[in-house]
Write a structure and sequence with these properties.
Blueprint: H1 2-11, H2 26-32, H3 38-69, H4 73-86, H5 90-106, H6 119-124, H7 126-136, H8 141-163, H9 168-179, H10 182-190, H11 202-211
InterPro entries: UreF, UreF_sf
Function: Required for maturation of urease via the functional incorporation of the urease nickel metallocenter.
Subcellular location: Cytoplasm
Length: about 220
């Protein structure tokens, strides 16, 4: 029971790592008219789920969980570098590093020691800190992946609700619908081999690169 509660804390929007300040290009996509409704928001998020979460973040999170559990610090660093190399824009790389640094600052105050040899890796990506906390708090790998995916989905829907804008009820309906896709996505992610880890989200990359110079914006990315 306690690992479940720790997972809820780790994925909570109240966790002070600034998750609510990022839209991952969605703000520009809405400004440009690519996303204008609850339907198009759902299409956008499902595409990112299928072509990034399933093929990049979740497989690497699974591997990081294993590497931390085995105390294989070289693999931890390799996976962090792999993730950063797959971030296609300056803004997305900055987001990854900023989230990582915020989580690395927070974890010691929650009783999770970060060894000196791990400090650079943990600060470089959010996934590393998330995986480290999951291992230290005895959160099972599948549960950690499921929680991370839900946290991403909730943040994306809430950003869309704010930006389009959409009603809160519509946002909850979309969460209900897209969450039905998550269990299958998790199973797919666990079957991805090393040679196929990567993302293919061209629209997100374009939107993120254009968002870097968007004149008026609410989100950092």
């Amino acid at each position: 029971m306690l690992p479940d509660l720790r997972l809820y804390q780790l994925t909570s929007p109240s966790l002070p790592v600034g998750g609510f300040t990022y839209s991952q290009g969605l703000e520009w996509a809405i400004e440009r008219g690519w996303v204008t409704s609850i339907e198009s928001l759902g299409d956008w998020l499902e595409s990112v789920l299928n072509h990034s979460l399933v093929t990049l973040e979740l497989p690497l999170l699974s591997r990081l969980h294993t590497a931390f559990g085995q105390q294989n610090w070289m693999q931890v660093d390799d996976y962090c570098q792999w993730l950063l190399c797959c971030r296609e824009t300056r803004e997305l790389r900055q987001e990854e590093r900023q989230r990582g640094a915020a989580l690395a600052t927070l974890l010691p105050s929650l009783g999770i020691e970060i060894l000196p040899e791990l400090a650079e890796s943990v600060r470089s990506t959010q996934l590393a800190g998330f995986a480290l906390a999951a291992v230290r708090w005895d959160i099972a790998p599948r549960d950690a992946l499921l929680g991370f995916c839900w946290s991403w989905l909730e943040a994306g829907v809430m950003a869309g609700v704010k930006l389009v804008p959409l009603g809160q009820t519509a946002g909850q309906q979309l969460l209900l619908r897209l969450s039905e896709r998550v269990p299958a996505a998790l199973e797919q992610a666990l079957c991805i081999d090393d040679d196929h880890i990567g993302s293919s989200t061209l629209a997100l990359a374009i939107a993120s690169s254009r968002h870097e110079t968007q004149y008026t914006r609410l989100f950092r990315s």
